[in-house]
Structure formats: C-alpha cells, structure tokens
Please model this.
Amino acid sequence: MPRPIFEVDVFDTGPFSGNPVAVVLEADGLSDEEMQRFAHWMNFSETTFVLTPTDPSADYRLRIFTPSFELPFAGHPTLGSAHAWREAGGRPKGGDLVQECGVGLVTLRSSSDGQLAFEAPPLLRSGPVDPEVLSEACRQVQLDPASVLRAEWVDNGPGWIALEVGSLDQLLALEAAPGECKVGAFTRLPDDDEAAIEVRAFFPKDGVTVEDPVTGSLNASLACWMLRDGALTAPYRSRQGTVLGRHGLVEVDQDAAGAIWVGGATTTRIRGAVEL
Model:
C-alpha cells in the first residue's frame, strides 16, 4: 500500500546545503528485511520509518537504517523524522515531543523560531582510545597519529571515535581509506568565525569509507565530551560539510539542568507516497 514519504534537508543553511533523510510514515507492518532493502535502495546516509510507539509515553517509534544496517540512534534522522511527523499532522501528547528508538526515549523541543532540537542521549562509551584503535582510526582518514591533539571514545549509539586536530587545513586535508572505524574529526575555529568548531564524519559502507555531510549524533557526542571538560561553552555552533560542498550548521545549547540540546534547520524538499 502507498505510505507517505518525505525527504527532509537537515541542518541546512539554504537549498540542498544540509544532510537529507528519507522518512517513511505509517510504517507499521513492514518487516526488517523490507525496511533494510528500501534503505539500501534509497542509498542515503539514513532512511527512517515512523511506527506506533510501544512505550505509552512516546509519540512515535523510529527505526533508523543506513544502506547496510540499522542504527539505535542518529541525530539528523531524529530531527528530520520529527519534522516530517509534525508536517503530516502529528501532535505531541505533552509539551515536548518524545521519540522512542533503539537507545530508548529521546526528547525533542522547538525553539522560538521553530527549529527542532533533540536532547543529547548519554554516552554509552567514553574515555581514552587504545593506541591500536587510534592508529587504525588515523589510518582510515590518512592522518598522522602525532597530529592528533586529543582522542576520545564518544559513542552515543553509532560508535564514534573523536579526533581533534590542530588546524582547519589539517582537517580539510583528510581523505578516507577503507576501514571499520567510525571517525569524527574536528578542529576549533577562531573567535570571529560563525562556528566554534568544524567537523568531519567518516564511517564504513560497503567495504569503503564514506563521509557524512552533517552528523547530529557525532555533534551531540562531541558536545557531551567538550562541555563536560570545559573545552567549549554553550551555546555554540558547529559547521560541517565543507569538503562535500555543503554548509551545514548545528546549534548546540545547554540548559540550567545540564541537558545538552542539539538542533538546526529542517526543510522539506520532497513529499509524496511510496509503494513498499
């Protein structure tokens, strides 16, 4: 049967400048195999499926698939799916929108200008990266380990390893090589820049390493690390996608209770129906 589908540009600063996600609404009844096959065919970083929640406190349940496997959580699919759900007429049960997904419940809120933000989930793994893993992560982005200022596990579901480098030139010069690590590289920017950090994200796909245009989960995990240790203070902006010809901006804030909120623009580019 036809099911509503949206293509949403997330963290965009203009037409086609962010990271697209395909969102299939009314996805109840689809099998795991059907979802994975469609995500592989779409070939976006992620394709999502919105289903009836199993937790009574949630507004909907979200399943998130890359072309090759399912993720328990991802940031730009969370924002894009919430955008599509609301545009299709969804209304939260309470003041905030609550998404059920593989890592549990994720809360979303709207800012005064209508931008969505999600509450960063806690890190599942943090702390130093073993030298062998660090060496492999650096090889995968063709970076000399001696150039890494800091390295840290920042896993909030996808399995990110964060590498800080000392300059924008170093960051933009990184090139992907085959590997199995999920690498988030970043550098701090001058005070007069529009953003506090520039970020790049690399992950394996079908035997090669690819770069993600703008990555909510990585930016959320970097915020958990850098706000905790005082390397950055909120609010701040992160820029991502430069090498890919994108110009994504991620807004990071922290409330009085210490919760970290990660948000940005979301814009519908395509809406229609899909036969699955």
In short: The CA atoms of residues 235 and 253 lie 4 Å apart.
